[in-house]
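Run log, item B.
One chain of 425 residues. Sequence copied directly from the ordering sheet:
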Amino acid sequence: MQNKFKRREIGKGIYFSSITDPRFKLNLISVRFLAPISEETASENAVVGGILTKSCRRYPTFATLNNKLSSLYAAKLSCRMSKIGDAQSVAISIACIDNKYALENENVNDEAADILVDCLFDPLLENGAFAEKITSLECQELIDDIEAEVNDKQTYASHKAEEIMFKGESAAVRSLGSVKQAKLITPKSAYNAYQRLLTHCRIEIICVGCSDFESSRKKLTEEFAKLNRGEIFPCGSEYSPLKDAEAIVTEKMSVTQSKLVLGFKTDCSNIPALQVMSAIYGGTTTSKLFLNVREKMSLCYYCWSSVSRTKGSLTVASGVENENLETAKKEIIAQLEAMKKGDFTDEDIEYAKMYRRNHLKTFNDGISSMEAWYFTGIYNDDIKTPEKAIEEDDKVTREDIINAAKSVNLDTVYILTSEDEGKED
């Protein structure tokens, strides 16, 4: 794969990155506002993202905005909320076909960039605040999304475990915030949050596609230059410290299958070794957790591990019968101890690296996945291509993997189990 990555600062705390790849027929412009995530502001920021992608002064209703997008060969305007370490990302993006594929030589790229600019800088206002109706609708949609999480017990359990693992840290806050805070949002408070995003947040603009994006860069540079930017919020992340004593929390709910989440902390700086170690431990269908805990011992319906390089954590998530909870926990820990002793084969290493290789290659398959890849690299101050990451994986040795495993220690145990027998999930 050949792509051309460029990055430059275009304003105070505003960065423009472009990745040009001739394979694509689409172009994506993503504007990410980054702020320290907090209980007080997370829901407000999420509502702002929704409001900005539903209307603007030029297109005052969702219908008129959607009609305009449809006329640009079904261009797509969207908002994505996410959390990375101790920061919240509000990403406003537009994707469209490249000009060369337009049937009547329309300048689709510039028109799409104009829509993005209109939505970001000229929203629909009423009396110096966001419109009452759209604010109310977005708040209710946010509340519905937050409340719906409990219906997906696997995701719910993972988020609860995060809250316990990172208690006292910004990373404990959920990306959408809370229902309590969402209910307090008004058109004026949402507008104030919007102004805060424009004025104080670090802004990462990332463009991916077959264009060189020079026109988009100039347009966005001009618009952002009109802002009176104040002090920029710091939004870096640090490794989470290991608790003095393991936190063990059990929650009861109407479920037929218990969820067991083990949260581990690490101070390992060799990220490739940590990733390969996690793949051997519980990241693939040939991993120790899958073959032993799930297949051989039949203790789990699923059992896998994942790494957060940003917070220095490793999480094992599993679905377990109630009577197997303690046995499964002990065996998951035992498999990690085996990793620390080097109880894995050269074939295990090769399978893990092969899995990682195939996984990393998928980031080149689409404009959204490529944008996400480079954003993560930018945030972690480790910008590289997926191919470079594959090369780093290939250099990982057995000793590196053992040392990575030895750095991992149990921090949190979260159990979601049934209130009583016979209830449905």
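Observations after the first pass:
- Confidence is low (pLDDT under 50) at residues 421-425.
- The two ends are 45 Å apart (CA to CA).
Flagged for discussion on Thursday.
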